[in-house]
Specification:
The complex is a heterodimer.
Chain A: H1 2-32, H2 41-56, H3 61-90, H4 93-115, E1 131-133, E2 136-138, H5 140-162, H6 164-174, H7 176-181, H8 186-208, H9 218-233, H10 238-258, H11 264-278, H12 310-325, H13 335-358, H14 366-383, H15 388-409, H16 416-435, H17 437-440, E3 446-447, E4 452-454, E5 457-459, H18 462-485, H19 487-497, H20 499-504, H21 509-535, E6 537-538, H22 545-558, H23 565-579, H24 587-601, H25 605-617
Antiparallel strand pairs in A: 1-2, 3-6, 4-5
Helix pairs in contact in A: 1-5, 1-6, 1-8, 1-9, 1-10, 2-3, 2-4, 2-8, 2-9, 3-4, 3-8, 4-22, 4-24, 5-6, 5-8, 9-10, 9-11, 10-11, 11-16, 13-18, 13-19, 13-21, 13-22, 13-23, 14-15, 14-16, 14-21, 15-21, 22-23, 22-24, 22-25, 23-25
Chain B: E1 6-15, E2 18-28, E3 33-37, H1 44-51, E4 59-64, E5 67-68, H2 74-79, E6 82-84, H3 97-103, H4 113-117, H5 121-140, H6 156-169, E7 174-178, H7 186-201, E8 205-209, H8 213-219, E9 222-227, E10 230-235, H9 237-242, H10 244-251, H11 257-261
Helix pairs in contact in B: 3-5, 3-6, 5-6, 7-8
The chains are: A mainly alpha, B alpha/beta.
Chain lengths: 630, 263
């Protein structure tokens, strides 16, 4: 019995932090209608501030805690003011979501630069000795945590319910346009919600630092757990956030105790998927229901990026010729290997472009399909001696089946929920890759994967592998270019920009989304298989959520909806850290910053910019009498 | 006896207790051009949305060419040949005007995704045919010059025309137009009237929701009048213009001498 209570107490402690992060999610979501994925990073920023003020500078606890919270909130507000608020005001929701993924990556990267990659634990506020009540041990830090969390919740409730400022915040949540017409400064309210959420998160981080060891990427864990909590509880409900957080914490502790700590995450994610499917709005489906007949995607305005005709063919041929000749040149060591990786990732980014750039559906867990493809092919080839080609094919089919199941499960989910369901899927696969040690080798990875081989010809040198993936990329681009230029691509683009108008023209919106998801899953799977056969090794880290975010960064950097753009994105982001080895520690921060800056300032991406620029340079061609397809 | 192109039987739609459409019954004869008019908030657009199953009616039944609309998703209704436009022109951003119009042909594309991916001759021929048809339609509304421009960069009147042309690309049997003349000037409205007449004469049944009386009275065969969710009159434009209830709905009740005398 006391073990049971002990687990509940542990769960409530952990859940308290989740609840605090969830509260931040909910607050920002209610005011901006955007899921701010960078939320969890504030916990780590707060903890890092605490470490410096308390341990390095030797300040007493209270001033150190206040200074840490103030400093990380200030940093957050600064970043939020120049990135988040403009993005939410100007960009479609999906871009804003991608931007917050970039912010999370950026914050993680900054923490890595400042803190390095070792874990930190801080001393508890009131010593190590726990309270003992009737044989049950309660860590003193837990009392602090509960007290401060309670104070924060009451404070927030008072602010929202009892003050004019709170009324303004709630008005923004209910109807942003009307609030604006009433003279409420919407951007200021957005920033305020972002700052408050940052403050809450930082306070949570300061409190939890003594009972959890934190490191640079723990922010991602907090974001994910907080998000799972808020999704279970109900995105628009404070009570839901708190209950969801506590529920999740307790559930994870029980899972860790009675099943295995390895699968605690898996179970939490299954719980989330079940809630998302059964009750998409969460357990506490209260809060403002946004009028669904009001179009809120009026902000979508994309430049028309098209490179066509002779110019496009010449450009493509020149690019392929240069790439084909590259291995013959004296390249610096490792460059060819990096190019192989870039091209392998490009295959997955191509699929992501079909899904995100054309069909307009954000996937935050695309590495999940890479993992399915990589592990399934590698296991079939190593443990069962299958030929790599057959293994790759079977893995691809398995990934498409996963995509279909995910699509069926999320059929009723629209908008952000699909993105979040894919995030949950990616994390689920990740946790299985870590947990199923017998099958996947667990965290240390799967070794001894053979080289790729077709009919006895082994692609066992980097040059051979390079030509294989180059040829594959060319074939895929040509095929997809055909599909995307003609009716199928037009239908996807119609779905992307206006589902209602698309349906009114007879486009089966749901079916097109599913097809796009299947294509992208198949390509991600192919990419994962090739990755495994190229490296002869596969570990969960290679196909984690960080990878998912990285692929989004590649796509956005290169240019969405251009197919070829992803190539430039993946080459730049793959080669940068290898070319500048000394700066490798900055890689994550730079990736995050690139993602944020591109989403904000150059939504058409590198290739899109080049194409628009060329189109302007080229003398206006005489209009062809018929719209001949090049 | 052919079944009506659109038939509403005792259709009602309530939003949280507010009856936006209240027990409306009417039938649109195939091949006719009819108009649905009424003051602001009369429930015209709601009736359109209910008819195309954007949301189901609270009570009653909608039939297109004899087939019940109930349970059919919007894209199925479109596949049955019922194509609608929207009150605010919903052209696709990020597409050129030509692409926007060609997107209307979605239901008629024969080449499968695979044929398109492999650049088969049939798929490319079909694409050329569609492009030629789209260009001809754009020519008809004098928007050929806008072909390669982003549609969202065009003036709102032009966007409304693109939306109508896009709907025509779908080859509708019944065309439902929601305020096509909103944002058009007088000359453009006159052109639109001629265009609608031509489309109708070519065999497409048309129903327009409209505020613009000159369009409605000049071109419609039959006019239905909604007020506060109820159908209060229907008949030829001449009959409607003389109908006392319609005049009241639009202009208010005849004023009493007392109120006229007030300062």
């Amino acid at each position: 019995m006391s073990a049971f209570i002990q687990i509940v107490i542990g769960g409530l402690l952990q859940g308290g932090v989740f609840a605090i992060v969830a509260l931040g999610f909910s607050l920002v979501y209610r005011v901006t209608n955007v899921v701010n994925l960078s939320q969890g990073a504030f916990c780590v920023l707060g903890a890092m501030g605490m470490y410096y003020f308390q341990v390095e500078f030797g300040w007493p606890i209270l001033p150190a805690a206040l200074a840490a919270v103030a400093a990380s909130t200030a940093f957050g507000v600064l970043v939020g003011a120049v990135t988040f608020v403009p993005a939410v005001s100007r960009l479609p929701g999906s871009s804003a979501l991608v931007l917050t993924a970039g912010l999370l990556t950026f914050f993680i990267g900054v923490t890595l630069v400042v803190w390095g990659n070792q874990p930190y634990a801080l001393p508890p506020f009131s010593g190590e000795a726990p309270f003992v009540i009737g044989g049950v041990r309660v860590p003193t830090q837990g009392v602090w945590l509960a007290a401060v969390a309670g104070a924060l919740i009451v404070g927030l409730w008072l602010l929202l319910a009892k003050t004019a400022l709170g009324r303004a915040l709630r008005a923004c949540a209910e109807n942003p346009l009307a609030a604006r017409l009433m003279g409420i400064d919407l951007p200021r309210m957005m920033l305020l919600s972002f700052a408050l959420a940052g403050l809450i998160g930082a306070a949570g981080g300061v409190l939890v630092a003594p009972i959890m060891s934190l490191q640079f990427d723990t922010g991602q864990f907090f974001t994910i757990s907080g998000f799972v909590a808020v999704a279970i509880g109900g995105m628009a409900s404070f009570a839901g956030s708190i209950v969801g957080g506590l529920l999740l914490g307790v559930a994870e502790q029980f899972a860790a105790f009675y099943v295995s700590s390895v699968f605690a995450n898996t179970l939490a994610l299954l719980l989330l998927l079940v809630v998302l499917i059964v009750r998409p709005a969460g357990l506490f489906a209260s809060g403002p229901a946004r009028r669904s007949d009001v179009r809120d995607d009026a902000r979508i305005h994309r430049a028309v990026v098209r490179l066509e005709g002779r110019g496009a063919i010449a450009f493509a041929l020149a690019l392929v010729a240069v790439l084909a000749l590259l291995p013959l040149l004296p390249l610096p060591g490792g460059l060819l290997s990096s190019l192989v990786i870039a091209l392998i990732l490009f295959v997955a980014v191509l699929g992501l472009d079909v899904l995100m750039g054309y069909a307009g559906q954000v996937s935050l867990g695309h590495a999940g399909f890479m993992a399915v493809g990589g592990y399934a092919a590698a296991i079939l080839a190593t443990s069962y001696g299958w030929p790599p080609l057959a293994a790759t094919f079977v893995a691809l089919v398995l990934s498409v089946v996963c995509a279909l199941v995910l699509a069926a499960a999320t059929q009723r989910l629209r908008g952000h929920y699909l993105a979040l369901a894919t995030l949950a899927f990616g994390l689920l696969v990740d946790s299985l890759a870590v947990g199923l040690v017998d099958l996947t080798g667990g965290p240390s990875g799967l070794v001894g994967i053979p080289a790729f081989e077709v009919a006895g010809f082994a692609f066992d040198t980097q040059a051979r592998m390079y030509y294989l993936v180059l040829a594959l990329s060319v074939v895929l681009v040509v095929l997809l270019e055909g599909g995307m230029r003609l009716g199928f691509g037009r239908a996807l683009k119609a779905v992307r920009s206006d589902q209602l108008a698309a349906a009114a023209l007879g486009v089966d919106v749901g079916r097109h989304k599913v097809i796009a998801l299947c294509i992208s899953a198949a390509l991600a799977s192919l990419s994962g298989s090739l990755y495994a056969f190229n490296f002869h090794f596969l570990s969960p880290e290679i196909v984690s959520t960080t990878r998912s975010f990285e692929m989004i960064a590649m796509l956005v950097l290169g240019g969405e909806g251009t197919l070829i753009g992803g190539f430039f994105g993946s080459v730049v982001l793959t080669l940068l850290p290898t070319l500048v080895q000394d700066l490798a520690v900055y890689k994550t921060a730079v990736e995050g910053a690139i993602l944020v800056v591109i989403v904000l300032l150059m939504p058409e991406g590198l290739f899109g910019r080049i194409a628009l620029w060329l189109a302007r340079l080229a003398p206006r061609r005489a209009r062809r009498p018929t719209g001949a397809v090049p | 006896m052919t079944s009506p192109a659109l038939e509403c039987r005792a259709v009602s739609k309530s939003f949280a207790g507010v009856k936006a459409v209240d027990d409306v019954s009417f039938a649109v004869a195939p091949g006719s051009l009819c108009a649905l008019i009424g003051p602001n908030g009369a429930g015209k657009t709601t009736l359109f949305n209910v008819a195309t199953n954007l949301f189901p009616p609270t009570a009653g039944e909608v039939r297109f060419f004899g087939t019940a609309a109930a349970g059919r998703s919007p894209h199925r209704i479109a596949a049955d040949g019922v194509i609608r436009t929207f009150q605010t022109a919903r052209v696709f951003p990020g597409m050129t005007t030509l692409e926007n119009v060609m997107a209307g042909a979605h239901l008629h594309i024969r080449a499968g995704a695979l044929a398109q991916m492999f650049w088969t001759g049939a798929a490319r021929r079909e694409e050329r045919g569609l492009a030629a048809k789209a260009e001809a339609l754009l020519d008809m509304v004098r928007l050929a010059d806008a072909r390669d421009r982003a549609t969202t960069d065009l003036p709102i009147g032009a966007q409304k025309l693109v939306e109508i042309v896009r709907a025509l690309m779908a080859g509708p049997r019944l065309l439902l137009l929601d305020e096509p003349a909103a944002g058009l000037n007088d000359r453009e409205t006159a052109e639109l009237s001629a265009l609608l007449r031509a489309i109708c004469d070519a065999g497409t049944t048309i129903m327009v929701v409209e505020h613009n009386m000159s369009l409605v009275m000049g071109v419609a065969d039959e006019v239905f009048v909604l007020d506060a969710g109820r159908l209060i009159a229907h008949g030829s434009p001449q009959e409607i213009q003389r109908d006392q209830r319609v005049i009241e709905a639009y202009l208010g009740r005849p004023q009493t001498p007392a109120s006229e005398a007030a300062p």
